[in-house]
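Chain A, query sequence.
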Amino acid sequence: MLDSYSFPSSRAPQRAAAAVPNPHPSRPDHPEPARPARRSAAAVSPALAPAIRRAPHLPARLREALALACDEARNIRTVEKLASAAGCDRRTLWTHWKHTVGAGLRLQDFLHWLLLLRATHRKTAARAWADVADEIGIHPHTLGRLARQLTGSSLRELAARGHGPLEARFQADVIPLVLTPAPNGRHG
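Chain A, predicted structure.
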Protein backbone atom coordinates (compact mmCIF):
# COMPACT_ATOMS: atom_id res chain seq x y z
CA MET A 1 0.00 0.00 0.00
CA LEU A 2 2.80 2.39 0.85
CA ASP A 3 4.24 1.88 -2.63
CA SER A 4 1.60 4.23 -4.01
CA TYR A 5 3.15 7.05 -2.01
CA SER A 6 6.64 8.08 -2.95
CA PHE A 7 8.51 10.91 -1.36
CA PRO A 8 11.43 12.44 -3.13
CA SER A 9 14.14 13.83 -0.94
CA SER A 10 13.38 17.35 0.23
CA ARG A 11 16.75 18.43 -1.04
CA ALA A 12 16.70 19.64 -4.61
CA PRO A 13 18.79 17.67 -7.10
CA GLN A 14 22.31 18.98 -7.23
CA ARG A 15 22.92 21.09 -10.30
CA ALA A 16 26.28 21.59 -11.85
CA ALA A 17 27.88 24.75 -10.58
CA ALA A 18 27.36 27.68 -12.89
CA ALA A 19 30.43 29.02 -14.61
CA VAL A 20 31.95 31.85 -12.63
CA PRO A 21 34.12 34.35 -14.42
CA ASN A 22 37.79 33.63 -13.90
CA PRO A 23 39.09 36.16 -11.37
CA HIS A 24 42.50 35.88 -13.01
CA PRO A 25 41.90 36.31 -16.80
CA SER A 26 45.62 36.57 -17.40
CA ARG A 27 46.00 33.03 -15.99
CA PRO A 28 43.76 30.74 -18.03
CA ASP A 29 45.01 27.71 -16.08
CA HIS A 30 43.59 29.13 -12.82
CA PRO A 31 40.57 27.01 -11.82
CA GLU A 32 37.24 28.76 -11.52
CA PRO A 33 35.77 28.58 -8.02
CA ALA A 34 32.59 26.53 -7.74
CA ARG A 35 29.49 28.05 -6.19
CA PRO A 36 28.12 26.18 -3.21
CA ALA A 37 24.95 24.18 -3.82
CA ARG A 38 21.80 25.91 -2.61
CA ARG A 39 19.63 24.29 0.03
CA SER A 40 16.07 23.39 -0.79
CA ALA A 41 13.53 25.81 0.64
CA ALA A 42 11.42 22.94 2.03
CA ALA A 43 12.34 21.16 5.25
CA VAL A 44 9.58 18.61 4.64
CA SER A 45 9.03 16.94 1.29
CA PRO A 46 6.61 18.96 -0.84
CA ALA A 47 4.96 15.63 -1.74
CA LEU A 48 3.83 14.99 1.84
CA ALA A 49 0.85 17.37 2.04
CA PRO A 50 -0.68 16.15 -1.28
CA ALA A 51 -0.16 12.52 -0.19
CA ILE A 52 -1.94 13.22 3.08
CA ARG A 53 -4.79 14.93 1.22
CA ARG A 54 -5.15 11.78 -0.93
CA ALA A 55 -5.24 9.35 2.03
CA PRO A 56 -8.85 8.12 1.94
CA HIS A 57 -8.64 6.32 5.30
CA LEU A 58 -8.12 9.63 7.14
CA PRO A 59 -11.22 11.68 7.98
CA ALA A 60 -11.45 14.83 5.84
CA ARG A 61 -10.96 17.21 8.78
CA LEU A 62 -7.81 15.35 9.91
CA ARG A 63 -6.47 15.13 6.34
CA GLU A 64 -6.77 18.86 5.88
CA ALA A 65 -5.30 19.62 9.32
CA LEU A 66 -2.25 17.42 8.73
CA ALA A 67 -1.70 18.94 5.29
CA LEU A 68 -1.86 22.42 6.86
CA ALA A 69 0.72 21.33 9.44
CA CYS A 70 3.12 20.51 6.61
CA ASP A 71 2.95 24.12 5.40
CA GLU A 72 6.01 25.72 6.95
CA ALA A 73 4.65 29.24 6.49
CA ARG A 74 1.79 28.49 8.91
CA ASN A 75 4.25 27.72 11.74
CA ILE A 76 1.86 25.33 13.50
CA ARG A 77 3.54 24.06 16.67
CA THR A 78 0.68 22.76 18.83
CA VAL A 79 -2.45 20.65 18.43
CA GLU A 80 -4.48 23.64 19.60
CA LYS A 81 -3.07 25.84 16.79
CA LEU A 82 -3.58 23.00 14.34
CA ALA A 83 -7.23 22.66 15.33
CA SER A 84 -7.72 26.40 15.04
CA ALA A 85 -6.23 26.39 11.54
CA ALA A 86 -8.49 23.47 10.59
CA GLY A 87 -11.58 25.12 12.09
CA CYS A 88 -12.36 22.51 14.71
CA ASP A 89 -11.72 21.59 18.33
CA ARG A 90 -8.47 19.85 19.24
CA ARG A 91 -10.46 16.93 20.72
CA THR A 92 -11.97 16.32 17.28
CA LEU A 93 -8.49 15.94 15.79
CA TRP A 94 -7.33 13.74 18.66
CA THR A 95 -10.37 11.48 18.24
CA HIS A 96 -9.86 11.16 14.48
CA TRP A 97 -6.13 10.53 15.03
CA LYS A 98 -6.77 7.86 17.66
CA HIS A 99 -9.19 5.98 15.42
CA THR A 100 -7.06 6.08 12.26
CA VAL A 101 -3.40 6.37 13.27
CA GLY A 102 -3.64 5.06 16.82
CA ALA A 103 -1.32 4.59 19.73
CA GLY A 104 1.85 4.11 17.70
CA LEU A 105 2.26 7.87 17.36
CA ARG A 106 0.61 10.80 19.07
CA LEU A 107 -0.71 13.73 17.06
CA GLN A 108 1.58 16.11 18.93
CA ASP A 109 4.52 13.84 18.09
CA PHE A 110 3.73 14.25 14.39
CA LEU A 111 3.85 18.03 14.86
CA HIS A 112 7.07 17.71 16.86
CA TRP A 113 8.67 15.70 14.06
CA LEU A 114 7.81 18.51 11.64
CA LEU A 115 9.40 21.05 14.01
CA LEU A 116 12.53 18.96 14.35
CA LEU A 117 12.79 18.56 10.58
CA ARG A 118 12.45 22.32 10.14
CA ALA A 119 15.11 22.93 12.76
CA THR A 120 17.67 20.52 11.29
CA HIS A 121 17.03 21.94 7.84
CA ARG A 122 17.92 25.43 9.09
CA LYS A 123 20.92 24.37 11.18
CA THR A 124 24.33 25.16 9.78
CA ALA A 125 27.75 25.16 11.39
CA ALA A 126 27.55 28.96 11.57
CA ARG A 127 24.11 29.02 13.25
CA ALA A 128 23.56 28.16 16.89
CA TRP A 129 20.68 25.90 17.87
CA ALA A 130 19.31 28.78 19.96
CA ASP A 131 18.99 30.90 16.81
CA VAL A 132 17.33 28.05 14.94
CA ALA A 133 14.89 27.42 17.80
CA ASP A 134 14.05 31.11 17.99
CA GLU A 135 13.39 31.18 14.24
CA ILE A 136 10.87 28.34 14.43
CA GLY A 137 9.29 29.76 17.57
CA ILE A 138 10.27 27.39 20.36
CA HIS A 139 12.72 27.47 23.26
CA PRO A 140 16.12 25.82 22.65
CA HIS A 141 15.58 23.47 25.62
CA THR A 142 12.28 22.38 24.08
CA LEU A 143 14.03 21.65 20.81
CA GLY A 144 16.65 19.57 22.64
CA ARG A 145 13.93 17.68 24.52
CA LEU A 146 12.07 16.93 21.27
CA ALA A 147 15.28 15.64 19.68
CA ARG A 148 15.88 13.27 22.61
CA GLN A 149 12.25 12.11 22.81
CA LEU A 150 11.76 11.46 19.12
CA THR A 151 15.20 10.27 18.03
CA GLY A 152 17.16 9.41 21.17
CA SER A 153 19.84 11.82 19.93
CA SER A 154 21.10 15.15 21.17
CA LEU A 155 20.99 18.27 19.03
CA ARG A 156 24.75 18.00 18.61
CA GLU A 157 24.37 14.47 17.24
CA LEU A 158 21.60 15.59 14.87
CA ALA A 159 23.74 18.46 13.63
CA ALA A 160 26.64 16.11 12.97
CA ARG A 161 24.43 13.80 10.87
CA GLY A 162 22.53 16.56 9.09
CA HIS A 163 18.96 16.85 7.85
CA GLY A 164 18.98 13.93 5.39
CA PRO A 165 19.16 11.03 7.86
CA LEU A 166 16.48 12.60 10.06
CA GLU A 167 14.18 13.02 7.07
CA ALA A 168 14.84 9.41 6.04
CA ARG A 169 13.89 8.22 9.52
CA PHE A 170 10.72 10.35 9.43
CA GLN A 171 9.78 8.80 6.10
CA ALA A 172 10.52 5.28 7.33
CA ASP A 173 9.04 5.47 10.83
CA VAL A 174 6.36 8.17 10.84
CA ILE A 175 4.91 8.45 7.34
CA PRO A 176 3.81 4.79 7.12
CA LEU A 177 1.84 5.16 10.36
CA VAL A 178 -0.03 8.14 8.94
CA LEU A 179 -0.52 7.09 5.32
CA THR A 180 -1.11 3.36 5.63
CA PRO A 181 -4.59 2.33 6.72
CA ALA A 182 -4.78 -0.29 9.42
CA PRO A 183 -7.01 -3.32 8.71
CA ASN A 184 -9.50 -2.48 11.49
CA GLY A 185 -8.27 0.90 12.68
CA ARG A 186 -5.46 1.38 15.14
CA HIS A 187 -7.17 1.84 18.45
CA GLY A 188 -4.83 2.35 21.36
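The radius of gyration is 20 Å. Residues 1-28, 30-39 have pLDDT under 50 and may be disordered.
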